[in-house]
């Protein structure tokens, strides 16, 4: 009889242990799922950062190209300014010569 009484306790004991293990495994699965989702989110953020970096790199290249063009334009404007200054000096000389001839 003692063994008949111990059977239900043993069954309950096994069920309790099994229930605890199932609960523990469920917690582990939940933690693993959270970690996978966190890793997935990290991969998503890394992908977004890479796309943003490509966009920034394109913007930098475009800015460099614009600066190079502006440098060329500045050089041309300097040449035009020098030409205008020479023409103004030449014009003053002509005005002086014309005044001298008219006086």
TrEMBL record:
Superkingdom of the organism of origin: Eukaryota
Query: Where located?
Result: Lysosome membrane
Which Pfam family would be a valid example here? BORCS7
Task: Recite the UniProt keywords alphabetically.
Answer: Lysosome, Membrane
Name a GO CC annotation attached to this entry.
BORC complex
Look up keyword Membrane and say if it applies. Answer: yes
Task: Give the UniProt family note.
Answer: Belongs to the BORCS7 family.
Protein name per Swiss-Prot or TrEMBL: BLOC-1-related complex subunit 7
């Amino acid at each position: 009889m003692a063994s008949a009484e111990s059977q239900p306790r043993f069954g309950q004991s096994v069920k309790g242990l099994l229930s605890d293990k199932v609960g523990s495994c469920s917690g582990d699965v939940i933690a693993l799922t959270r970690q996978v989702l966190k890793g997935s989110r990290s991969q998503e953020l890394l992908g977004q950062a890479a796309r943003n970096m490509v966009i920034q790199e394109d913007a930098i290249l475009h800015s460099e190209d614009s600066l190079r063009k502006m440098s060329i334009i500045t050089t041309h404007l300097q040449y035009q300014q020098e030409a205008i200054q020479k023409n103004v000096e030449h014009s003053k000389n002509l005005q002086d010569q014309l005044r001298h001839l008219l006086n």
